[in-house]
Amino acid sequence: MAIFLKQENHLIVWPVLKELAEGDMLLTSIGTRARYDMSTRELLEACLEAWEVTKEQNYRLVLVRGDGKTKISIDNQTVKEAGIRNGDYLEIVEA
Predict the structure, then answer these.
(1) 22 lies in a domain?
(2) 34 phi and psi, to 5 degrees?
């Protein structure tokens, strides 16, 4: 993974399902590889795949930082344009 991060376009994000984050069920976190030039829709798909979530429902991403939460648009936007940085924590929530 260290080699992956040495490339300028690559980052790691930490997505978690919101219902797990709010309860006592969360025992671990999953680091997900991403690229700054990938779309936010692609990032959402990668996060859902990492958590093995069935895609029967619609989901969206929420960026969580110390200054609050920000909804991430998944329409025609790259990860870089969305302001997501290496090491950011993301919540996966039902849309």
Answers:
(1) yes
(2) -150, 170
Cβ-contact 10, 35 below 8 angstroms: yes
Collapsed DSSP state (helix, strand, coil) of residue 40: helix
Overall domain count for the chain: 1
Selection from 46, 43, 37 nearest residue 78 by Cα:
37
In whole angstroms, what is the distance from residue 48 CA to residue 2 CA? 23
Could you tell me the pTM of the whole model? 0.86
pLDDT digits (tens, 9 = 90+) for 60-87: 999 999 999 999 999 889 999 999 999 9
- d(C-alpha 32, C-alpha 15), whole Å: 7
16: domain CATH number is 3.10.20.90
Residue corresponding to tokens 């795949």: 49
